[in-house]
Design goal:
The complex is a heterotrimer of chains A (121), B (263) and C (232).
Chain A lengths: L10 H14 L12 H8 L3 H14 L2 E4 L3 E4 L3 H25 L4 H11 L4
Antiparallel strand pairs in A: 1-2
Chain B lengths: L1 H36 L3 H38 L3 H4 L6 H31 L2 H18 L3 H34 L3 H29 L1 H8 L6 H31 L6
Chain C lengths: L2 E12 L2 E12 L3 E5 L6 H8 L7 E6 L6 H6 E4 L11 H11 L5 H10 L13 H13 L5 E5 L7 H14 L5 E6 L2 H4 L5 E6 L2 E7 H8 L3 H9 L2
Parallel strand pairs in C: 3-7, 3-8, 5-6, 6-7
Antiparallel strand pairs in C: 1-2, 1-4, 8-9
The chains are: A mainly alpha (121), B mainly alpha (263), C alpha/beta (232).
Chain lengths: 121, 263, 232
C-alpha cells in the first residue's frame, strides 16, 4: 500500500482522507488494530510525524481510538462508520451534481444518465 | 583511532610503492647475475640495461614516495576526499600524525630498499675494500667502522629528507589557508619554510660556537679540526635535525587544529 | 536534550564576500527538514559549517549542545554532494572501512540496501558511474544509526525512479528520535516527506515553517510557494 499525494494539499489531510475511505469501504474492519505509527508510515511511505498527526485527527473524528498500551484500533461503532460513509457519499454526489449542472444538465437528464450507465463499474 | 588511520594510509602507500620496490630489486638481482655470468659483450649490455632499470626504479620509488605523499596529503585534507577525512570521528591531530608517520615509515622503507638494491648490485670484497680505502683516512681519524660511518651519513640524509617532506606539508597547509588552495602558493610557502628550517639549523649550529672557540673554527677556518669537536658537531647536528623535525611537527599540528576551509 | 542542532548568529565570509549572514536556527529531534534554496545561495556552506569542513567567521554551531568535534561527528551522518571516497577501493572494502570508524554503522543493513539497489559489492568505485557511486554513498550514510542525517542534494544525479527509492530509503531507515536535513533545489520531488522547510536566499534564512501549515496558509504546494516567493 502506497499513497499518492497531491503536493497542494496538506499531506496529513490526504492521509486522513485515505484512511477514512479505507474504513468506510471496509478495508479496515471495525475493531481492527492499526499498525504502529512507524510501521504504518513505513508501509505507506510517509513521514512518521505526518502519520502521527493524521492519526490524531482520525481519533478526534472518533473513527480511531487508542488503547493505552495496545495501540490504535478502528472504532467498533458501526453507526459512526455508516454516518461517515453517508457523509462521504453525499459529498461525492454533490460534487458530481454541481459539475453536471455546470455543463447544463437538468436533474431529470442526470438521473437518466445514471440509469443508463449505472451498470458500468 | 590513530592506529586505524595509519593502517589505511600505510597500506595505500606501500601497495603503490611495492611495484617500484619489487621491480627495482628484481632488476638489481638480474644486473648482478648478468654481469657475473661471463665477460661477453652481450652479457655486459644486458647487465647494463638491467642496472639502468634497477636505478630508475629504486630512485623513482624515492621520488614518487615524496611527491605522492604531498599529492595525497592535499587530496585527502583539502580535495574531494577531505569530505570523508574531516567527518570521521577522529581528532584532528590524529589525521596529521597519521600522514606524518606514513611519511616517516615509507621514506625509511624506500631508503632501506634503495640501499639493499645498491648492495645487491655492487657488493663485493673488492668494492668494499676500495670504498674503505677511499674513505679510510676519515674513518681512521674518527676511529669508527665503515658501517657506523655509512649509517651516520644515511641517517643525516634521512632526517633531512623528513624535514623536506614536512616543510612540504606546512607549505600545503599555509598555501591553502592564505590563498584558497592555489598550488603555486603552496609550493612557494613550502620552499620558504624549507629555507627557514635550513637557516634555523645553521643558527642552531652557531649557538655552541659562540661559547666554544674550537667549535667556531668550523665556520671560520679550513684548518684540520680537533677530533672531539667534529664528533660533537656530528652529534649536535643530528640532534638539531631531530629538534627541527619535532618543532615542525608541532607547528603543523597547531595549524591543523585551527580547522579547515575546504572547497 | 530535545534540540539536536542549534546555530547562533552564524556568519561566514570568504574574503569580503558574505556567504551566510546572521543565521539563527534550532532543529529539534525527530524532524525531517528541507533546506531549500536556489544554487549558490549558501545551502552547502551552511551544511559544511555543521560538518566542520568550514570554520565560522563568527557565531556558533552546536550539535547536541556541543561545538563540532569528535563527539558530533559520531552522531552526524553526512552525505556530501560530491563523490568523496577513495576510488581505488571496492564497495566491500569501503563498508569495512566505515564499520571500523563508525561504531553506529550497520554493515548488514548496508549489504541489504546495496543488494536492493542492484549494486555489486566486489566492484571498484572507479569502475562505477557517478550515479552508482552516489547510491553507494547514500547507502553508507543511511546504514548508520545517527542522531542527525545531513543529506546535501541527495537527488541530484539520479533518475526519477531512483528518486522515489531514495526518498523511501530515507523514510524507512532514519533512526527514531533522529532528525534529517535534506538540502535540495528539487522541491517538488521531496516535499511529501518533509515536516518543516527552511527557505534560504542570499545567505539568509527567509522562512522556517511547517510544510502543512504553509500549504494551508498560503495555498498551493511548497514548490509553488517557493517559486512565488523567489520568482523562478
Amino acid at each position: 500500500m502506497k499513497f499518492d499525494f497531491n503536493n497542494n494539499i496538506p499531506i496529513y489531510i490526504q492521509i486522513v482522507e485515505q484512511i477514512k475511505t479505507d474504513i468506510v469501504a471496509g478495508k479496515f474492519k471495525p475493531g481492527e488494530r492499526l499498525p504502529s505509527v512507524r510501521d504504518f508510515a513505513n508501509e505507506t511511505k510517509v513521514n512518521p510525524n505526518t502519520m502521527q498527526k493524521a492519526l490524531v485527527e482520525l481519533e478526534e473524528s472518533g473513527l480511531v481510538f487508542t488503547e493505552r498500551t495496545n495501540g490504535k484500533f478502528i472504532t467498533h461503532d458501526t453507526s459512526l462508520i455508516n454516518f461517515y460513509k453517508q457523509k462521504y457519499a453525499e459529498e461525492l454526489t454533490l460534487t458530481y451534481l454541481k459539475r453536471m449542472y455546470d455543463i447544463g444538465y437538468s436533474l431529470g437528464e442526470i438521473s437518466k444518465q445514471i440509469e443508463q450507465l449505472g451498470g458500468n463499474k | 583511532m590513530l592506529g586505524r588511520l595509519l593502517k589505511y594510509d600505510l597500506k595505500q602507500f606501500l601497495k603503490f610503492l611495492s611495484v617500484f620496490y619489487i621491480l627495482g630489486l628484481f632488476f638489481a638481482v638480474l644486473t648482478r647475475l648478468f654481469l657475473n655470468i661471463d665477460n661477453s659483450l652481450f652479457m655486459k649490455i644486458v647487465g647494463e640495461i638491467c642496472r639502468g632499470a634497477a636505478f630508475s626504479m629504486l630512485f623513482s620509488a624515492f621520488a614518487n614516495n615524496i611527491l605522492r605523499l604531498w599529492v595525497k596529503f592535499r587530496q585527502s585534507v583539502y580535495g574531494d576526499e577531505s569530505y570523508l577525512t574531516h567527518t570521521l570521528p577522529v581528532k584532528k591531530h590524529c589525521i596529521y600524525s597519521s600522514k606524518m608517520l606514513t611519511a616517516v615509515i615509507t621514506a625509511f622503507v624506500s631508503l632501506i630498499v634503495l640501499i639493499l638494491g645498491l648492495f645487491v648490485i655492487y657488493y663485493s670484497k673488492e668494492n668494499a675494500d676500495a670504498l674503505k680505502a677511499m674513505i679510510s683516512p676519515i674513518l681512521n681519524t674518527f676511529n669508527i667502522s665503515l658501517l657506523t660511518g655509512l649509517v651516520l651519513v644515511v641517517f643525516v640524509l634521512y632526517l633531512e629528507f623528513i624535514n623536506i617532506l614536512q616543510c612540504g606539508f606546512t607549505g600545503i597547509i599555509l598555501g591553502h589557508r592564505f590563498n584558497n588552495g592555489k598550488l603555486g602558493m603552496s609550493v612557494l610557502f613550502g620552499f620558504i619554510i624549507y629555507m627557514l628550517s635550513q637557516i634555523t639549523i645553521v643558527i642552531l649550529m652557531f649557538i655552541p660556537a659562540i661559547f666554544n672557540s674550537d667549535f667556531m673554527n668550523i665556520f671560520v677556518t679550513t684548518k684540520a679540526m680537533n677530533l672531539e669537536v667534529i664528533k660533537f658537531a656530528v652529534v649536535y647536528s643530528i640532534i638539531s635535525y631531530i629538534v627541527i623535525n619535532i618543532v615542525g611537527f608541532l607547528i603543523n599540528i597547531k595549524l591543523f587544529n585551527k580547522g579547515v576551509n575546504v572547497d | 536534550m530535545n534540540t539536536i542542532l542549534e546555530l547562533k548568529n552564524l556568519n561566514k565570509s570568504f574574503g569580503a564576500k558574505k556567504v551566510l549572514e546572521n543565521i539563527n536556527l534550532t532543529i529539534p529531534r525527530g524532524k525531517i527538514v528541507g533546506l531549500l534554496g536556489k544554487n549558490g545561495t549558501g545551502k552547502s556552506t551552511l551544511i559544511k559549517l555543521i560538518n566542520d569542513l568550514l570554520t565560522p567567521t563568527s557565531g556558533e554551531v552546536l550539535i547536541n549542545g556541543k561545538s563540532p568535534s569528535v563527539e558530533s561527528k559520531k552522531i552526524i551522518a553526512y552525505l556530501p554532494e560530491r563523490t568523496y571516497l577513495d576510488k581505488s577501493m571496492k564497495v566491500a572494502q569501503v563498508i569495512k572501512y566505515f564499520a571500523e570508524f563508525y561504531d553506529n554503522f550497520d554493515s548488514q543493513k548496508a549489504y541489504k540496501l546495496l543488494e536492493e539497489l542492484g549494486l555489486d559489492v566486489n566492484q571498484k568505485l572507479a569502475k562505477m558511474s557517478k550515479g552508482m557511486q552516489e547510491k553507494v554513498q547514500l547507502v553508507l550514510v543511511m546504514s548508520r544509526k545517527a542522531d542527525l542525517y545531513i543529506l546535501d542534494e541527495p537527488l541530484g544525479g539520479v533518475d526519477p525512479a531512483t528518486r522515489e527509492y531514495i526518498l523511501d530509503t530515507i523514510l524507512s531507515n532514519f533512526n527514531e528520535g533522529a532528525s534529517v536535513i535534506i538540502s535540495t533545489h528539487l522541491i517538488n520531488d521531496i516535499e511529501r516527506i518533509l515536516d518543516d522547510v527552511i527557505f534560504i536566499n542570499d545567505g539568509k534564512i527567509i522562512l522556517h515553517s511547517e510544510c502543512d501549515k504553509l500549504r494551508t496558509e498560503q495555498g498551493g504546494s511548497v514548490d509553488e510557494i517557493f517559486r512565488r516567493m523567489f520568482r523562478c
